[in-house]
Amino acid sequence: MRAKLFLLILSIVSMLIVGSAIAQNSDETTRKLWDTAFINNTTNKPAVRRKQRSYRVATPRVSTENVAPDSVVGVTIWRLRPAVAADSGERIIVHEGSEAKQWLPERISADTKLVQGDKLRISIEGARKGYLYVIDREQYADGSVGEPYLIFPTTRTLKGDNQVDIGRLTEIPAQDDDPPYFTVKKSRADHIAEVVSVLVSPAPLEGFKITDQAQKLSEEQVAVWEKQWSTGVGFLEMEKTAGQAWTREERDAGGTNTRALTANGPAPQLLFYRAAAKPNEPLFVKLHLWYRGPTKRTANH
Questions:
Q1: Predicted confidence band at 1 (pLDDT cuts at 50, 70, 90)?
Q2: How far apart (Å, rounded) are the C-alpha atoms in residues 67 and 70?
Q3: Which residue, 30, 33, 27, 25, is CA-closest to 266?
Q4: Alpha-carbon gap, residue 105 to 128, rounded angstroms
Q5: Nearest to 42 by CA among 25, 27, 60, 28
Q6: pTM
Q7: Which residues pair with 200 in a beta bridge?
Q8: Residue 109 to residue 213: CA distance in whole angstroms
Q9: Are 108 and 242 in contact (CB under 8 A)?
Q10: CA–CA separation, 40 vs 233, rounded Å?
């Protein structure tokens, strides 16, 4: 009797151990964009951060408490430079006439100042299934902004497919677009920044049709979206990764034959969040890309 009882207890313990191991393994192999263990602040002990990834809070006045893990959105801005033989990252090949030029995308930080002629790409990852919309408008020195244009989705990029999901990168422009980058250019002397707004909605937005061109939006409509879905938005920025080159994993996850990024795959440079947001609410975030100001000249003595 005792032997049977011992075997029963041993069997139960074994099942618990196996179940715990499976749950732990599943947790470690599931990709997460949001995990407070990644946030580098004074309240986190070093032992808590189990992975190499580390983010700083770029908006310290916006709490990181009560953030639903599936209500965040990741954004990475890439600046392209001519590739050289010693570069280790993945390249983008652009055919210009009879020539093929190789460009190397590199991460830039939210504080990077742009110069006219810079070539940029944007990659966006949602923490859950949804629909992506990207709006661009100019900002001027007096604080005013230009007209809002919906630059994504269009039928020229991904054939209008604007669905997002965890591990799936949406690249703007797409790798097969011509050209596969934006070239930034000031429209006038007091044009000081590009304001890129990213909207992720659980359902397609109503009221407009996806076309092959960027669409001018109603300023009133954009203001309503911003008021409803951007209150209390903050963001984190990954530390020590500005300047890192585009990887093969990121290339594959954003290409036409998409492969989802894994749990340990490259993470977004910026993570936007909204504390206490409901899971079914859209998220509207804004990113300012500032132009470099004029260089001050020093008098010769």
A1: low
A2: 9
A3: 33
A4: 26
A5: 60
A6: 0.84
A7: 132, 283
A8: 29
A9: yes
A10: 19
